[in-house]
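Team,

Forwarding the record for the chain on the shared tracking sheet. I've put the sequence and predicted structure together so nobody has to dig through attachments.
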Amino acid sequence: MVLIIHLGISWACTIIPLEHFNPYSRPYRIKKFEREGRIYIDIFKIKKWKNIIPDGAKLFNSAFSKKNLECHKLSYLCTFAQETCRAELTHWLQILPMGIFFLWNVWWGGVIMIIYFLIANIPCILLQRYNRARLLRFIEKRKAMNSN
């Protein structure tokens, strides 16, 4: 059941048109407290564990790989930033159904499922926000260089 939920939500998010993901819009915008992504380095020590997070794009042929930066073209960087929004939404949506496991499990089984859903998705959300902050800084520098 968990696999069906994860894959179903992941697939559904891949068919949402990319123009619906704006890294500057409210849900995806990097907040002040994130300190341009430095919070993820200082508090969450993301550089120590980010490489062990698998890239879910491999599951879907049409998905955008976010494991490595492939080039420095501005259009590619902007697409990458949008794709981090898509991935973040996917992981938030994967957390939402965690409560349904209380319907057919004993209470402690539901608690285990909640812990699983959080452990499986929160690191991915943090990683997307960290990458987006870095990408947006790079995009702004590229735009400034191009305007000079």
